[in-house]
Amino acid sequence: MPVYIRKNVSYTPLSLDKVEPEDDHDFLLDPDQLWDTLPQPYRMINKILSQLIDSAWDIIQDKDRGRTQEAFRINAPKYDDPVKLQIYQSATALHASADGKYIFVGLPSGLAAMTALYQEVVNVWEDPFAEIVTIKSCLIAADFHLIITVDNLGICRLLLFAGDTLYFLKAINEYPSHAESKVLCQKCEAEGGYLGIVLESSAELWLEVHKLPLESWLQEKESLLAAAEEEKEMAHADPSGETGSMEGSIVKTVRTSVAKVHFSTPEIVLKMGSPSQQMAQQTALKGFPCQTPLVGPTPMKKDWSEPLGLGTQHVLGAAHIERRDAMFTHKHEQLLSFLPQDKTEHTAIPSFHFVTGSRLLPHDWVQSSTENKKYVAIAVWWSGFSTLCQYSLLKPAKDLELTPDLVWPLTSPITCTAVSPCTSHLAIGCKNGNIVLWDRTLGLLKAVVSGSCDSEIKSLRFLNPALFPSEISSETYSLSSATFLLAECCKGSQMLYDTCHGSQQIPRCLSTKPDNEEETQTILQVLPQLPDLLLYVERNGRLFIKDICSGETVAQMALPTSYHLQSPWEPVYAVGAGGQILYVKAEGTNKTEDGATEDTSAIFIYLLRSYPPLDPYWSNYKGSKPLAVYTTQEERINTLFARRVQQQNLRKFHLQTRWGQLQSELTRLEKMSSANTVRTSPVS
Q1: Exposed site from 442, 476, 622, 648, fewest CB < 10 Å?
Q2: CA–CA separation, 654 vs 71, rounded Å?
């Protein structure tokens, strides 16, 4: 039977009493309730999904922002055509002399010296047991250098380079191979006739300061060169002498050092241990006189000239603290096993600077230092401690372990320091990110600035004062000068501070913390004769040159494809010939046809003088200028007298003009006097 269904039929809805009530708590029925507080476990799932989406979106935005910046950024010109040096492929260290004429090359079996401009080997000192890894040099006189080397075994050696010849002088801490206790060299620096060496043994670590006999060395050098000239004249006069040449070789002249030459040896003048060792020795040996722990140590008579102490003269000495620790360990022995144990031991390593006299020192030292411009003191600080001490190098003493003559107490441990080349300014970087700037010559605190709120200061360095745009001066003589202080934080940011008196300028940020850790910059060296250019290396091994004032990258030096730097943190490099040539040691390997690995390490040379981006800096060369100028009374009188002599002709002209006007002025005065007389005379 057919069924007919009508279209467009509207059924009558149900009555309200028959409609089932809706559940208000069922969020699936109400779309607006999807954003309300969800019950568990939906709330946790929603939170996890939201975090994943937000983090993914942040990553997408960062990548897009990086692509945009990379597209609009103008990359520095890249130079990947260095010259490969055909000698010394196994060099272990490179160092340029102070005058830029020579490059000292550390070898697995000695030391070599070659000219920086033409790469000609001058002399070689050979020792099969000396693999040089660190080289330092100091210019004693013209063409006379002191070379300090440290090998892979920690032995420090002194050599003299004079008359194109290397002379072995002395090994500071040489020990036999069968010795049980070995003394290793951690750090060495030489400046102004003094040599500082940090030595370490299995039991302790200490700093030694040696005085260099510069005058004796100069006299011995003159006598040595005179004897060499006589031998040369005798060799030319001998007709049986034979001369040979080395054709097709870079080596031009190589002479063996004379073993019979004996130079004077340095003399130790100061020896000091770490503050913790000094405290332990002082407490154990001397002790502190006190009646009870509440009364404390008995006050002793002190001279007012003595400086602030190091904080060791108190009843809570090292022995007292050891007893307290032993008592606490015995009482809580069962509970101490559950505490986290830190097995890393932090060793305090000293850093030091040789400085000249200042108003912070006694008057006789200041006068002798000002007249002779000699170094009279050493500033020392230890890692992990918040005090910087200054010791005198001229004070006579029977014992080598002297007490500090000056103590700088700080509120945070010191992480780095810097002294200007003239030693008139001292900058101290702290762990809390603050930078303290002192004017040593005047003995004044110039500034305390905040370098970084979330990172400690990694390094400090004073730049050339010629980069500073302004100078404070008077009409007669220069009063003072200022420069920039370059600070680097541990997180990679770099800032510029000025050292001007009373300056309240905001520090200039050269570079912020990089987003990619591989692009973190490692500050290496300011190019000689180009004080506004800085050579740095990134963690990925790329070398760059950038402008210090603007922070912009100027050029990039790229190594060949199959080569890489030995270490981005401590690369083997040297800048010679007054900043014209860059020497870089690169490592590389190559597989032979037999499948063996072949070492292809070599030294590459970059001719920086031929790079077009550096031409404006060479043309606008800024000469050296002292950081601080403090004139004496005699210099001021001489300056005023010279100015008066220069103005003599001008004063003579003014005097003649004045004498010429005197007659007319007298005539005018006589007329005025006669007129007043007539006016005041009584009428007859």
Answers
A1: 648
A2: 69
* Choice between 475 and 341, residue whose per-residue pLDDT is larger: 341
pTM score of the predicted model: 0.75
Assign 3-state DSSP to the chain and report helix, strand, coil percentages, each to 5: 25, 30, 45
The CA distances from residue 136 to 8, 97, 111, 148, 611, in Å, are: 103, 9, 12, 5, 29
Residue pair 213/397 in contact (Cβ under 8 Å)? The answer is: no
Nearest-angstrom CA–CA distance, 443 and 485: 19
Q: If 0-12 CB within 10 Å is exposed, 13-18 middle and 19+ buried, where does residue 414 land?
A: buried
| Chain segment 292-345, per-residue pLDDT in tens | 444 444 444 444 444 555 655 555 666 777 888 889 888 888 888 887 776 566
Phi, psi angles (nearest 5°) of residue 642: -65, -35
Residue 250's pLDDT is 39
> Among 140, 121, 251, 94, which residue's Cα sits nearest to residue 576?
94
Digit-coded pLDDT (tens) for 372-383? 468 888 999 998
Determine which of 104-118, 216-230, 272-286, 620-634 has the lowest per-residue pLDDT on average: 272-286
Residue 320 burial (CB count, 10 A): 14
Q: How far is CA 250 from CA 91, 111, 120, in A?
A: 16, 17, 6
Name the one residue in this structure whose structure tokens are 């210090």. 548
Q: What is the pLDDT of residue 244?
A: 42
Give the three-state DSSP class for 543: strand
Residue type present at position 254: V
The DSSP bridge pattern shows strands 533-538 and 78-79 to be: unpaired
